[in-house]
Specification:
Elements: E1 10-14, E2 19-21, E3 29-35, E4 38-43, E5 49-55, E6 60-61, H1 63-67, E7 75-78, E8 82-88, H2 89-96, H3 100-126, H4 129-140, E9 141-143, E10 149-152, H5 157-164, H6 168-180, E11 184-187, E12 190-193, H7 196-203
Antiparallel strand pairs: 1-8, 2-7, 3-6, 3-8, 4-5, 4-7, 9-10, 10-12, 11-12
Length: 211
C-alpha cells in the first residue's frame, strides 16, 4: 500500500532491537509494516519479556492504541530490520474516510488482535496449549506466490513458545507431532500448512492433540 501521499507519512527503517514504541508512550502514529517483523512485548514485574504478538508485512502495528488515542501498555520492538510507513494518527484516520482498503486493514488487525488475545487467555486458563498453538498457526497463515499456505519464518519455535508463554521444548514437541501427522512442514521460508482442515480441528478444539 502506497502511503506516500498521506500528509506527514514517513518511510523509515528500524534496526533489530530498536523500539517503534515504548511502554508508557502516548501512541501518536500507526506503523504499516512493509518488510521485516516486530514484536509487541510485555515486561512482567519480574523483568521477564513476553511476546504478545508479532507484526509482519502488511500488518498495522499499534492499531488499537493509536486509533483510540491511548498510552502504550507494551513495547513494540523490531525483531529484524523493519521498513515501515509511520503515519500520524489524525492523517491516518482522515485517509480512512475515502480509502476502504485502509479501513478494512485496520479493522481486521484490531479484531484479529482482540480475538487472538481473548482465545489464548481462555485456552491458557483451561490448559489447552496445543489448541492455542494450532490457532496461532492457522490465523497467521497466508498464501505465497505458489498459492501454498505458509506461516512466515519469523514464527520460529522460540517465537511461538514466547507468544504462548510456554517452554521452547513444549512448542517444539507439539510442532514435531503436527509434522509427523502431515499437517505442517518446516521449510526454509516458514511452516507450510499441508492440511488446514485438520489444523483447524485442533484450533477450534474439535480434536485434542496429545503431546
Amino acid at each position: 500500500m502506497d502511503c506516500s501521499k498521506i500528509p506527514g507519512a514517513q518511510y523509515i527503517c528500524f534496526k533489530k532491537g530498536e523500539y517503534l514504541v515504548k511502554s508508557g508512550d502516548k501512541v501518536k502514529h500507526f506503523f504499516l509494516i512493509v518488510s521485516g517483523s516486530c514484536h509487541r512485548v510485555k515486561t512482567t514485574y519480574k523483568g521477564d519479556q513476553i511476546i504478545m504478538s508479532t507484526f509482519i508485512k502488511d500488518n498495522i502495528a499499534c492499531s488499537f492504541m493509536a486509533y483510540y488515542d491511548l498510552t502504550a501498555a507494551s513495547d513494540i520492538i523490531a525483531a529484524s530490520t523493519v521498513y515501515c510507513w509511520k503515519i500520524p494518527r489524525k492523517a491516518f484516520i482522515e485517509e480512512m474516510e475515502h480509502n476502504p482498503k485502509l479501513m478494512k486493514a485496520l479493522l481486521e488487525q484490531i479484531m484479529q488482535d482482540y480475538f487472538d488475545l481473548n482465545l489464548r487467555f481462555r485456552f491458557k486458563q483451561e490448559g489447552h496449549t496445543p489448541n492455542i498453538l494450532c490457532h496461532l498457526l492457522s490465523s497467521k497463515a497466508h498464501k505465497n506466490s505458489a498459492g501454498e499456505l505458509i506461516v512466515d519464518k519469523v514464527y520460529t519455535n522460540v517465537n511461538i513458545a514466547a507468544q504462548l508463554g510456554v517452554h521452547k521444548v513444549t512448542a517444539t514437541r507439539i510442532i514435531n507431532i503436527l509434522q509427523k501427522e502431515g499437517i505442517i512442514e518446516r521449510t526454509k521460508n516458514g511452516l507450510l500448512i499441508k492440511d488446514l482442515e485438520r489444523l483447524n480441528e485442533y484450533a477450534i478444539m474439535d480434536k485434542q492433540l496429545k503431546y
